[in-house]
Design a protein that fits this description.
The chain is α/β, with parallel strands linked by helices. The protein is built from 9 helices and 7 strands. The longest helix has 35 residues.
């Protein structure tokens, strides 16, 4: 078992706390169509349902729309993200240590949270624990990406000698085979993983800036910079994007996993 790096986890939590309201406004709506695809087919998942790493609640809102009246619980490490959610039931907790009884859900979902977890296998075992036998897991996580518009921000930072700093966890589950194998060892069967391409398009540099800086790493870095330095980052980004082929689109592979609890 991977020992949790509590300082790194606290840093991530603090960065999400800082980003929460801007994330709710500029990021979550762009994730909602992906959550809809995950939830709508082949048919909407059954409740009682749990959304782990629920954040500001984009996927739960979609789930409620698909299954009105379903009994749904949102769990997230960051209370500030949950404050921005409209979920009726919200619990601040770690994805790998859920304060929930065994076999209490028929479906667990998780959208773009697995890549933050230091030990995805331990988290998947925990999600299997709270699922009833035959219950369903649906998750979306980032696949392995080619350089894309997203990286223009990192390049602009590098132009000024800045960086967002290291990730909490290395991305060990951005390939379908690794994700499938970890889900199977965690007690899931009929594991199906498909890769999709998500494209996020922006009208102009300002729209891209709003989206990109509403993620936690960028939000934390910019909050620590004096105003003049923040303006310099924005200028460096505009210069980088002047050479970017129009339109402004960030393309990201996404892995969709569907599986059953044995
Ligand atoms: C990229 S956001 C995704 C939020 C939401 N699912 C969405 O699609 O908009 C990742 C979320 O995972 C949460 N998170 C990170 N590490 C976590 C952990 N160890 N346990 C529970 N939640 C965690 C963060 O607080 C954040 O809200």
């Amino acid at each position: 078992m991977v020992q949790p790096d509590l300082r790194a986890e606290r840093r991530l939590q603090a960065a999400y706390a800082l980003a929460a309201s801007r994330y709710a406004r500029w990021v979550a709506p762009r994730f909602r169509p992906l959550a809809r695809d995950l939830l709508a087919s082949p048919q909407p998942p059954l409740g009682p349902g749990l959304d782990v790493g629920s954040g500001t609640g984009a996927a739960l809102a979609e789930w409620r729309r698909l299954v009105p009246g379903a009994s749904l619980l949102a769990v997230d490490l960051t209370a500030e993200m949950l404050f921005c959610s409209s979920a009726a039931w919200r619990v601040a907790a770690d994805a790998a240590a859920l304060p929930l009884v065994d076999a209490s859900f028929r479906t667990v979902i998780s959208v773009f949270a697995l890549h933050h977890l230091p030990d995805p296998g331990a988290a998947l075992r925990e999600w299997a624990r709270v699922l009833a036998s035959g219950g369903e897991l649906r998750l979306a996580t980032w696949g392995k990406s080619e350089p894309t518009l997203w990286d223009a921000f990192d390049h602009a930072l590098a132009d000024l000698g800045l960086s967002e700093g290291p990730r909490l966890a290395p991305r060990t589950h951005d390939a379908p085979d690794a994700l499938r194998a970890t889900a199977e060892s965690a007690g899931f069967v009929a594991v199906d993983v498909v890769e999709r391409l998500a494209a996020f398009a922006f009208r102009d540099v300002a729209a891209f800036w709003r989206w990109r800086t509403a993620f936690p790493g960028a939000a934390r870095l910019l909050a620590e910079l004096p105003a003049a330095r923040r303006t310099a980052v924005r200028g460096a980004l505009a210069r980088r994007l002047a050479a970017w082929p129009a339109p402004l689109v960030s393309r990201h592979p996404v892995l969709f996993l569907r599986a059953r609890r044995a």
